[in-house]
Amino acid sequence: MRVYIAGAMSSKNPITFLDNLRKGMRLSTRVLLVGHAVFSPFIDFQLFFMTQEDEEITVTQVKAASMAWLKVSEAVLLVPGWENSQGTKDEIAEAERLGIPVYDSLAELEYANHKGE
After folding, report:
1. Phi and psi dihedrals of 56, rounded to 5?
2. What share of the chain is helix, strand, coil (3-state, %, to 5)?
3. Chain centroid, CA 94 distance in Å
4. 3-state DSSP call for residue 61?
5. SS3 (DSSP) at 32
């Protein structure tokens, strides 16, 4: 199953930002390890390290790329603590508009996945 990971990322506090990345990357790893194809916006930060002096990646580009992947996903899995993230709320709304199920936990996703077999 193609699973899109959604959750809070940005923060004015750099420690909170890094913790958000850790949580998202950890959940992404767990999803991959149980056998799903995972798309994780939590690893997008690596793209910024690859730009050259004359290149710039915008937030708009990153969000558009993520939404393109969300549209071909079969499920959205939420990282705990997403509730105050406007970006995640937008992703949930898009998933709901497209009829893509949204799950609050890996256990819930796995239950639904096995129930459908």
Report:
1. -145, 130
2. 55, 10, 30
3. 13
4. helix
5. helix
Residue 86 dihedral angles phi and psi, to the nearest 5°: -65, -40
Place of tokens 């990322």: 9
**The pair of three-digit structure tokens given for residue 19, joined into one six-digit string:** 């913790």
Statement: residue 116 has pLDDT above 70:
no
Q: Which two tokens stand for residue 115?
A: 């129930």
Length of the chain: 117
- Burial of residue 80 (CB within 10 Å: 0-12, 13-18, 19+) is exposed
Q: How confident is the model at residue 114 (pLDDT cuts 50, 70, 90)?
A: confident
- State yes or no: pLDDT of 62 exceeds 80: yes
Q: Average pLDDT, stretch 95-103?
A: 98
* 48-76: average pLDDT: 95
